[in-house]
Amino acid sequence: MTDIVVIGGGGHAKVIISIIKKIKDFRIIGYTDLADRGDILGVEYLGSDELLRQVIRDHPSVTAVVGVGMLKNSDAHKRKQLFDLADSLGLNLPPIISPDAIINEDVEISDGTVVMDGVVINSGTVIGEGVILNTNCSVDHDCKVGSFTHVAPGATLSGGVTVGKNVLVGTGAVVIQHKEIVDNVLISAGSTVVKDILKTGTYFGSPARLKL
Ligand SMILES: CC(C)(COP(=O)(O)OP(=O)(O)OC[C@H]1O[C@@H](n2cnc3c(N)ncnc32)[C@H](O)[C@@H]1OP(=O)(O)O)[C@@H](O)C(=O)NCCC(=O)NCCS
Q1: Cβ–Cβ < 8 Å for 163, 147
Q2: What is the 160 CA–ligand 1 centroid distance (Å)?
Q3: Where does ligand 1 bind, in terms of residues with CB under 6 Å?
Q4: Atom 20 (ligand 1): residue with closest C-alpha?
Q5: Backbone angles phi, psi at 71, to 5 degrees
Q6: Which atom of ligand 1 is nearest to the CA of 72?
Q7: Nearest-angstrom CA–CA distance, 44 and 140
Q8: pLDDT tens-digit series, residues 170-197
Q9: Each residue of 32-58: pLDDT tens digit?
């Protein structure tokens, strides 16, 4: 069993906790957050992130998962700060992969990434660090997903898509095959990307266009 502490106690953390429980290889020590949100699915509040040093003293081989989600690009910055904090404390951030996700052959998933229930990742795809592949999203063959990007529930990356860092591919959005999306882009929920997106910004609609 590997000890793990959850950093953050919101809705995203709750989903992660329920997945970690299904994996069974982990023992969840508790969660840290700025505020005490009470027990989350039976997991106790430990205190603020300051408490992490104490947790490491008490459980020297403890690992961590960042449970703070991403609803806009600026959240990626907050998430990165928490990853840096974990890193500075020497905490390992193993990828958390739901047993109810389908990960096909020849897929790379980096540390700190979470793969939720119902996700499908096809062969030849490389997923960076600290990525969120949210419930029921689909990442097809030969995609590249950059660090700290969030592919939201039900979104689809078709084959050969390259997505940069800190991108939010909104709920139910679709990216057709072989398109590229640069760093720090927000694809609005339900949009359809049919051309490369080479300029940072927020994109709406089908076909997705830059919001001016
Ligand atoms: C794009 C988005 C960030 C805009 O949020 P916002 O800046 O607060 O904008 P507003 O809600 O004020 O909407 C501004 C306008 O855009 C429209 N709009 C908002 N989201 C839209 C979307 N996904 N598709 C098309 N139009 C959209 C609104 O209807 C509104 O139109 P109006 O000015 O004619 O009334 C947000 O709607 C969105 O899609 N976020 C992604 C959510 C997501 O995927 N979350 C993942 C959860 S796990």
Answers
A1: no
A2: 27
A3: 71, 134, 152-153, 170-171, 186, 188-190, 202, 204-205
A4: 188
A5: -110, -10
A6: 3
A7: 37
A8: 999 999 999 999 999 999 999 999 999 9
A9: 999 999 999 999 999 998 899 999 999
